[in-house]
Each structure stands twice: as C-alpha cells, then as structure tokens.
C-alpha cells in the first residue's frame, strides 16, 4: 500500500465498514493511517474502539499502543480536538520570505486554517497581493511592512481563536458577516444559557463551528451585493451538507430596517428580484431572518446590511433628467442633459478603459457633478 494512496484509503475502509454497521450511533472517520472514533457515550466508545482495533489487527495491521489517544486533547489530521473546542495544531508560519514559492506556501498554510480561526480576506490581502505576477517560482519576494503587520495579527489570532465542537442536540445556523466587497459568513449553533445576576463568567452561548469565505478574486468585473450574499449562502449550504448531511435551521441575512414595520411581502420582494438568491435558496425549507442573536461578535462584524428601502418614487419627480450611455467600441461614457437655465443641451464625455459595463458604471459620476440638484 506504500505505492498506492487509493488502496491505502480503500482497504481500511473495507475493514471498518462492518464495524460501522455494527455500532449504530458511533462514527468512525479515517484517512490513510489516521482513524478517529466518536460515540455519544463512553460505553459505546469503548466498545467501538475495541471492535476497530480487533478488525485492524486481524487483517495484519500492527498498532502501536502508545499512539492510541484515549484522553483529550486528541490530534487528528493536523487538528487538536479538546472536549469542547477544535484548533489547528501548532502551525509554523514561515516569515522569512525570499521567493514566490515561499509566498505560495505561506498563503496555502493560512488558507488551510481560515475555517477554524476566522481569518478574513482583509487579514490575508497583503499576502495575496504578493502572489501577483507570472514570474518563476524562484523569483524574489519580500514581505512588505503591511504584510508583516498582517502576519503579526494572524499569529495573534492563531494563539487566541478556536472553533467549537458541534452539539448534536442543537440546530445549525448560518449568518452573513463582514463588509463589501469581501463578505464572509459563520456556521454556528446557539446554546440557551441561564445567566444569573451573580454569574458574571457565564458560558458563551455562541458556538462557532466554521467560517465560510468567498474567493479573493471574483469571476465578474462587477458583482452586486445580492450576488455575493447568494454565493456565500450557496457555499455554506454545500459545506453543511458535507459536515452534517443536513440543512440550516435558520439563515440570518442582516437587513437595514427603516421603520418599525416590515412585512413578509417585503422580504419576498427582495428574493424575487434577484435570481442568484433564488438559486442559492432553492429547496431551502428553513427560516430566513433579518435579525441576529445578541452577541458582541455579531455587533462588531456585521458591517453590511441589505436595505429594503425603495429608491423609486411613485410620483414623477420635477428634477433634472440626465441621459447616459457608453460604448465598448469608442471606449467613451457620455452624459447629456438640458440646462434648465439656458434650455440648451449640454454634454460630458470621458474616455474609459475596460468593458462597456465599466463605461456605464462611470456614468454614476452624474451624481457627483450635480450634487446640488435633484436628478
């Protein structure tokens, strides 16, 4: 099996499958020569572990007793699992960057720990920027001052942050966090904790299971916030199916409320107007909430909110009308309007590099040019 990772994965699986069928609620996970046995109680755990060991020994495997971890913390696939939490094992962050290959190795390591430590795209952006350029792997690279500062912050996060172990009796939830253009989200559970006035060190009700992030670079030149939220929800739903084989009980999409009244029709309008959100929430039967649990972390990290405020007037507005257009052929963006004082048509033309969509976006400059006018 030394020369075939596929056989190394398949053969132990064939031995452990009958054990899994026999123990019912117990869970056996294995990858190559690493086996993790989980059970809801100690008796079943001990029984499952004995069956697992007997099955592997009978097949000719030699197990070293000192490598069987019976007490926490358990180390499995570079993770350190305690009774309540999960953290990556001590990761040596290489800060002596000399080549592009060193940067790729650093970014790969940081990307791996992101789901458990919640390292945002803003945290990693200075290091991602060092990857730009199509040079050879041996091309020289050095950490900028911004990258060094970011690395110090990341090392602090690695020393202080952790994820929680999932509780089977609590539902799984998801919430959208962050700020544009790099939104992120969190898969979490919320535990009801009775807190008395005397109990100042009450256990945190928030159980962080895993963080979810978007790609650093978007495939589209311009992406609407609704599309970013939809992509985040799609990734989170896919991930929770891998982790737990289920769906979220509730998805929290923070929404700006401009009045004390908000109707179901307003939320339905938000979903019906965006195709990306419809696909992301396809076949979803859980709740969608515009509110979020009261927690300091959510208050600090929710910097983006959907706005349900309508920007359309039901009555014609007596305002300046500006016509806009853009051309991908001439690379020009045009504004034209009728001057209310001279009654003469005027125009503003600028050259724009990029696609026609970028040229159309430049037309937003009309709002800057006519700050003191209703348009």
Q: In brief, what are we looking at here?
A:
This protein has 375 residues and is of the alpha+beta class. It contains eleven helices and 16 strands. The chain folds into four domains: 3-70, Alpha-Beta Plaits, CATH 3.30.70; 88-160, Alpha-Beta Plaits (2-Layer Sandwich), CATH 3.30.70; 172-193 and 203-306, 2-Layer Sandwich (Alpha-Beta Plaits), CATH 3.30.70; 322-372.
Primary descriptors:
five-stranded mixed β-sheet, 16 strands, RT_dom, 375 residues, Alpha-Beta Plaits, four-stranded antiparallel β-sheet, alpha+beta, 11 helices, elongated, RNA-directed DNA polymerase, 4 domains
Write the layout of secondary structure elements.
Elements: H1 5-23, E1 27-31, E2 34-38, H2 42-58, E3 74-76, E4 79-81, E5 85-88, H3 100-117, H4 121-128, H5 145-160, E6 163-164, E7 173-179, E8 182-190, E9 206-213, H6 225-244, E10 250-252, E11 255-256, H7 264-272, H8 275-280, E12 287-289, H9 296-301, E13 306-307, E14 322-327, E15 332-338, E16 345-351, H10 356-362, H11 365-369
Parallel strand pairs: 7-10, 10-12, 11-13
Antiparallel strand pairs: 1-2, 3-4, 4-5, 5-6, 7-8, 8-9, 14-15, 15-16
Arithmetic mean of pLDDT? 85
Helix segment tally: 11
The share of residues in extended strands comes to: 15-25%
Give the H and E element order: HEEHEEEHHHEEEEHEEHHEHEEEEHH
Give the strand line-up of the largest sheet: 9-8-7-10-12
Q: What is the share of helical residues?
A: 25-40%
Total beta-strand segments = 16
Per the principal axes of the C-alpha atoms, what is the gross shape?
elongated
- The radius of gyration over CA amounts to 27 Å
Q: How far apart are the termini?
A: 73 Å
Report the uncertain regions: none
CATH topology value of the largest domain: Alpha-Beta Plaits
Task: State the name of the first-level CATH class of the largest domain.
Answer: Alpha Beta
CATH superfamily annotation of the largest domain: Reverse transcriptase/Diguanylate cyclase domain
**CATH architecture identity of the largest domain:** 2-Layer Sandwich
Largest sheet: 5 strands, mixed
Provide the number of structural domains: 4
Main structural class: alpha+beta
Pfam families: RVT_1, RVT_thumb
Protein name: ribonuclease H
Keywords: Endonuclease, Hydrolase, Nuclease, Nucleotidyltransferase, RNA-directed DNA polymerase, Transferase
GO molecular function: RNA stem-loop binding; RNA-directed DNA polymerase activity; RNA-DNA hybrid ribonuclease activity
